[in-house]
From TrEMBL:
Protein name, UniProt field: PDZ and LIM domain protein 7-like
Gene3D superfamilies on file: Cysteine Rich Protein
GO molecular function, one term: actin binding
Primary location group: cytoplasm
TM segment ranges: none
Keywords, comma-separated and alphabetical: Cytoplasm, Cytoskeleton, LIM domain, Metal-binding, Repeat, Zinc
InterPro entries on file: PDZ-LIM_domain, Znf_LIM
Amino acid sequence: MHALKMTYHVQCFMCAACKSPIRNQAFYMEEGEPYCERDYEKMFGTKCHGCDFKIDAGDRFLEALGYSWHDTCFVCAFCQINLEGKTLYSKKDKPLCKGHAFAPV
Ligand SMILES: [Zn+2]
Ligand SMILES: [Zn+2]
Ligand SMILES: [Zn+2]
């Protein structure tokens, strides 16, 4: 197969992270190294901590509690009220609204 204008044996063209051959799977390049889709997402993709789906370019998102969130996913773990721009409390890594911050789990 041809990739990057170089020729690889199929079994030599492998993901730089998990070392599994990429063969005809989708792959992504990062700093000159190929990564399988799964590892690329894991290492370079931004995943929403609320819904666990990827945050696509163009999606509105915010960063809080050390994670990234779709703005629509950044809600209180109890009542689902949107917490964007509100006073934020958190328990473990879950965002909570003021009213539920001290509620027993
Ligand atoms: Zn991989
Ligand atoms: Zn989300
Ligand atoms: Zn709440």
